Amino acid sequence: MIWNKNKECMSRDELRDLQGKRLHKLVDLVYHNTPFYREKMQELDLLPDDIRTIDDIVKLPFTTKADLRDNYPMGLVAAPMTEIVRIHASSGTTGNPTIVGYTYRDLEIWKEVTARALTAYGVTRGDIVSVGYGYGLFTGGLGAHYGVEHLGATVLPTSTGNTEKHIRLLRDLGVTGLACTPSYALYLAEALNKQGLTGADLKLRIGAFGAEPWTENMRREIEERLGIQAYNIYGLSEIMGPGVAYECGCKNGSHIAEDHFYPEIINPETGEVLPLGQEGELVLTTLTKTGMPLLRYRTKDLTTLMPGTCDCGRTSVRFTRILGRSDDMLIIRGINVFPSQVEAVILEIPEIAPCYMLVVDRKNNLDTLEVQVELRPDSFSDDMGSMLALKRKLSDRLKSVLSISAEVKLVEPNSLPRSEGKSTRVIDKRVLA
Amino acid sequence: MTIKQLSVFLENKSGRINEVTKVLGENGINMQAFSMAETTDFGILRLIVSDVDKAVEVLRAKNFAVVLTDVVCICCPNVAGALSKILEKLAAHQIFIEYMYAFAQGDQANIVIRPSNLEECVRLLAEEDCHILDRKQLQ
Q: CA nearest B97 in A: which residue?
């Protein structure tokens, strides 16, 4: 099923024409309303009228997460505060979170693209969809929520946390759709089995999974254990949230809602735009957003764009699975974590040496984060209570900065590797094969 | 009449205690008593050794986090009720025992106590005619 045949199945020529017109309007908007972009364009000697067609996009500057940080909190917002109706926040690379402001119109677009995604998975009116993404500053919960409502299906705003209650409601209400992280779906399957139940005891038939990388093997396992069809949903808060791209029944790449988000693939080292079909970093331009529109935002997600019309009839371009990241961001339980955030917390605590190791693992289908830190020799105390208090201080601080809990492990002075390079600071034991 | 106890921070991984005992042994430092307090990921090894200053020096050179703590070492008869009598006295005077460890052999028992109020503890023990060990007696 297709929610918006007009847009999702548009001819490529028509689409490019529409994208060009929208880009021109967008550039005009940011040039006049975002000093950051005006300055960048002036540096490049560019005026809004220099951007006429979608091919002109290569003339425009990139936007990075660092730009969002440097303009914290609302420097990149193009609309006046009287037009901003919602704010979301995600992890920044350092202490500052990334703030995104949405206009009412942005939320309308978001609902639209999420409804497209859900329809592509086969969700219709009459379905009950449990949204097990976190509700709050994270875009996952509210993003999926409004999409389900907009479609006309029934939303069950389960959020994260109480798995026992979740299972009970899935059973008692005959819930047919599930939106959550793929690892939570597996955790749920595990919890079902512990209660002596299987997917056959539920009416679930469709799953919309995203916010973290997953694999074909995980898809097979989720589908078998829950007895459902599992689909990928892609999004990032800087651009919108879930719904930026979505799989269809063909499960062969995620379709980008191209009339709203223009994709490019670049060489992450040089910034050069790569020909269709080559692997590189996904760059997205928000063609229609008015709250915090972004030009050529570097997602740091590595993927490949797939040419050609899909068997489902959609003409919008697809990307393959996300193959990795071109930065050191980790996605843990669906939450973005940057090693630099951990570093910032450690620097605040004088009893700890400025040296750490992050160990990410997946135990019982749930991601775990262990933060190993070195005790400073002169901070060692014979009093066990004060040592445990130090551990707690660090884990409380990490929890408030990262939004996920981390297991702190105090290790002996000088025991962590000292070599440079980000790879040595992170051990990711999760096997995504 | 207090004794300097050596505390060493140790990660919970195999071979770490051995590493400490090896370093001490190689430097001719004898251990008279020790105990291990542990949590899930680290522990505090507490030791009474023959040459505490040298022990600190050689362990620090090997990157161990070490700290010295004053404790009281007493010797009491190795008979039922002997320790209880002492502890009763301390409790009656609100002396809180943070930790203690002991070893009994023959007709004697040696006990290491880390009390909340060191001076008061020593005074009370002396009042009780308790045998408080000094460094020399520990050799």
A: A383
